[in-house]
Input
Amino acid sequence: MILLALMLAVALHSLKAVPLPARVDLVDGMVRVPASRWSVIDVLLKQRGAVVECRYSVERGRSGVRVALMSAGEAERFQAGRSHRPLVSLPYERAGFFRHPVTKPGEYRLVIDNRMEGRGPALVRVQLAAVFGDPMLEIRELPAGRRAKVVMVSLGMFALVALWAAWRLLRASRRLRAEHD
Output
């Protein structure tokens, strides 16, 4: 119990006041995607450490659409019919959501693909946002001194638990021997 209280105190001590993330709505509207075609939405991110959130639903149309987030270069490869590597790609569905961290500022494209069945156009409601400064999504590294302290405390806690378990097992085995003798 004391061990848990100590661990909680260390965890609370390491927490600092963090600012709330800033959310910027980029698109909130309807996008018409022609039959057997795709539509592209330009996304310009000027800051590092953004998380792109996208929610979509097909409001009119007989089939689902595929939504993918790509860098501008990969989107050009996609449009040229060449192999491409999206940052994130959802399957053909009538509705979906993704949340993807983007580490580098630059130009990106949200591609809405309606080529699965090609029956008719699709009217897709798209909500696209960028979240900046989310402390839970930023990749951080502890300074070397603090890393060493964390490792030492962890090893010390492990050693204490191992010694306690060994002591309990030794005590139980001695009690069993005494009962059998």
Q: What stands out?
A: The chain has two domains: 22-132, 141-180. Residues 160 and 177 are 26 Å apart (CA to CA).
